[in-house]
Amino acid sequence: MARIPVMAGNWKMNKTVDEAVDLVKQLKSSVSGVKDVEVVVAPPFTALYAVQREIKGSSIHLAAQTLFWEKKGAFTGEISPLMIREAGCEYVIIGHSERRQFFGETDESVNRRIKAALGQGLKPIFCIGETLKEREEGKTFSVIERQLEGGLKGFGEKEVLPIIIAYEPVWAIGTGKTATPQQAQEVHRFIREKVGRLYSKDLAEKIRIQYGGSVTPENVKGLMEQDDIDGALVGGASLKSETFSKIVRFREI
Ligand code: PGA
Hints:
8-stranded parallel barrel, globular, single chain, 8 strands, alpha/beta, binds 2-phosphoglycolic acid
């Protein structure tokens, strides 16, 4: 079964409401007519609702960048799954390495967030990836295995199916140092096999695994040619419609 590639733009803490609306307006026209690629944008919380209004009726999908697992209550500064869905999101990025690194997220809290997202009908983009130190110490696969097992703990096959896994080696994020297509493919293969062992071969064949870390129009094609790479999670290059639309149109490169 062919997996539909998914290209997601993670805008991180960039774009005011006006800037976000401008960008998505441009994107709507620059990706119009693209078939068989799912396009997702993840603006900051403050711009979600405005972007949602702008993309209504288009083929662009909306994601939030994180969430908190409680439904509501005294949790100053946090955003619930319901609020995110109500703002128009279909997806939510969970466990991004910047959240793990700067905001104390762990495999356990990532697992709670995924559970809460699924409970509200949101599709998680579940991020995993090793640091440079871990790679140099030969721990890449054991780290990936731990993050996968921890993040997916307690879920059955049906729950895991809508999840997109994003493999983002921490050393490649925002550094301009992309993993080579072979390095990425090796880990993607490992992730797919691990999903097969945890669940089933059928699920492993269906689940989409994105690569993230310094993806650009220059390197996207080589990555997308790999058997187990089903799309990209794009930071820097998603902040301009010109570069992001080229990534979305990788087949035309
Ligand atoms: P980058 O970010 O493309 O700027 O490296 C990717 C990400 O963090 O999702």
